[in-house]
Prior knowledge:
The chain has 668 residues and is an alpha+beta fold. It folds into six domains: 4-103, Rossmann fold (3-Layer(aba) Sandwich); 105-131 and 207-331, ATP-grasp fold, B domain (D-amino Acid Aminotransferase, Chain A, domain 1, 2-Layer Sandwich); 133-201, 2-Layer Sandwich (Dna Ligase, domain 1); 333-452, D-amino Acid Aminotransferase, Chain A, domain 1; 461-585, Glycoprotein, Type 4 Pilin (2-Layer Sandwich), CATH 3.30.700.30; 599-666, CATH 2.40.50.100. The protein is built from 17 helices and 40 strands. It has a nine-stranded antiparallel sheet. The protein has an eight-stranded antiparallel beta barrel with strand order 25-26-27-28-29-30-31-32. It has a five-stranded parallel sheet with strand order 3-2-1-4-5. 47% of the residues are buried. The mean pLDDT is 93. The structure holds adenosine-5'-diphosphate (2 copies) and magnesium ion. Residues 275, 287-288 line the site of magnesium ion. One adenosine-5'-diphosphate binds at residues 131, 156, 162-165, 200-203, 206, 208, 232, 235, 275, 277, 287-288, 443.
Amino acid sequence: MFRKLLIANRGEIACRIIRTARRLGIATVAIHSDADRRALHVREADEALHVGPSPAAESYIDLARVMAAVRASGADAVHPGYGFLSENPAFAEALAAEGVAFVGPPAAAIRVMGDKITSKRIAAAAGVSTVPGHTGPITDADKAARIAAGIGYPVMLKASAGGGGKGMRIAWNDDEARAGFAAAGREAAASFGDDRIFIEKYVTRPRHIEIQVLADMHGNCIHLGERECSIQRRNQKVVEEAPSPFLDDDTRRAMGAQAVALARAVGYASAGTVEFIVDDARNFYFLEMNTRLQVEHPVTELVTGLDLVEQMIRIAAGERLAFAQDDIRLDGWAMESRVYAEDPLRGFLPSTGRLSRYRPPPEGSHDGRKVRNDTGAFEGGEISRFYDPMIAKLCTWAPDRAGAIEAMADALDGFEIEGIGHNLPFLSALMEHPRFRAGRLTTAFIAEEWPDGFHGTDPAGDALHRLVAAAAVLHRIAEIRRARISGRIDHHERHVGCDWVAVIGRAEYPLVLKADPDGTDVHIAGGDVLRVEGEWQPGRTLARLVVGGVPLVVKVEPLTGGFRLRWRGADLAIRLYTPRQAELARLMPVKAPPDASRQLRCPMPGLLVDLHVAEGDRVEAGQALATVAAMKMENVLRAERPARIARLAATLGQTLAVDEVILEFGAE
Length: 668
Ligand code: ADP
Ligand code: ADP
Ligand code: MG
């Protein structure tokens, strides 16, 4: 076994690898950039070495600098994690030349699978079913359009060197094929330094289902079942689960057999993933093979009981797999939510900044359910613009899917993140979604269910009443505290009233509260009596209550005269008034929100790389206005309604801040 492992990565995955290495008695070395001097992975490793400036290209992806760190550390093995150098065959070769073990597959397998065109050809030759398409060279946009038309629309134009959802475009007609060819090529050249594009049939409303394989260096190769990763935005995964609610045993076996056949065909050894898209008739087609540890590997660990990082390390050390295909049992159900610094209210665009609050829910086993949170973040730490905006991977396990979803919904309610935009409300809304709960997933799920973007959820019925009752009880507790501090009462609570009106926007809920030593009965006029129990003190940002017999974990923020409560994707301002105050409040005018529709504002920090309109132009709804590049992705901003461009406020090549005005619309 190895003595010392260098982890050529950062963030949650570096922390996760360190954890397993430590358990195996292997010393760990972290590497870090300028921006990561105080990062969690640096603190958790036994040693840490600085490798360069903040941009990944000058630190984590700089082969020479990482190799220098490997030499300086005296490590006898390197785990690359995912991203960065993990799929760079030159890295595996450089390590081999130094006599250092690479905890990953042979360089030759990385090389052929890293190129989507080559891997698709190899897969087809190995008898793996592939998406119909064209993998020959495409020289110009017109040729792209001819090939696309030949395949039949819709098609997908994909960068052969692509990854991370970058460098791909869907086209429904010749014009889009031409435009997509240019855009995908540009994005691929910028991200991967390789603009080769291929075209394949776009499978509409498919599922993304992938097979985890594990192979040793002695010819043993097995699969660990599937993960379903259909919940995606911008072709990138957000929620993954194992097993898939869609596969039957026969399909699982057939996909597993093809994945193993492909792994064998390229002489694979280590953990790897063969990705497929699956249509509604359970036809499956090879997408790509990821020759590394996958972001979503924890869900497989939770249902197989295996530690994939441990397996990778053992395989790299020359050990044989200690089990065969028949020994693999899938037990229960696991979910993973990728908690991203992305603002769902702004079209999932990245948000960066300091985590003024970061409190994940408690991990461990409880009531037959498990919670696991893989993270590299900490309170006071920064989500840097230099790297992937993932904050944490929150996973849950339960004996069945419904239980895993419920556990996830609870865990999300108890997850506190403040200071930056994040997708917790969206993940919560997803867990509550009836179609998600029913397992009717496709990669178009988010686009179909939230066609106009996500704007939070509106709780109704019982759920709303529970929140109102909770707010009333929190208010009563706060009022008692205030009365005590101001000396209005000594020990008694009798001066705090029991008649309140809860007000949400224009809706009013008259309430009567009856408190006893163990809890409070809240009578909502015209309806239920809800008993509220649980502990909360003013100043606490999370309340763990039981309301009407149902556990309610709610995020609490004081407002003048009430609270902001956040729960399951809902974000409510609830004021608690005396009946007299409520009467006066009714007379207050409602303030109209400022009209932002006259301006196109930049939704995320980025670079203005294209302006598609000029002053005086008339545009239609959906027409492209500007392209902003952020985190290596090009984001096209479109017109929401027909308009005339009155003024361009930003210039090409300008670096834009959030909400900076790009252009102004004029009267028709
Ligand atoms: P997965 O299927 O596991 O989500 P992806 O291909 O989407 O894998 O990418 C895995 C990780 O690698 C992501 O966190 C992504 O940000 C990162 N990644 C992908 N491509 C690149 C790249 N060219 N440079 C740096 N990181 C990358
Ligand atoms: P990456 O390397 O960026 O992960 P993939 O080839 O794995 O690229 O594709 C990423 C996602 O894009 C898939 O999970 C799927 O949602 C979508 N996708 C890719 N190819 C197709 C296709 N031919 N038809 C439909 N969707 C596709
Ligand atoms: Mg992929």
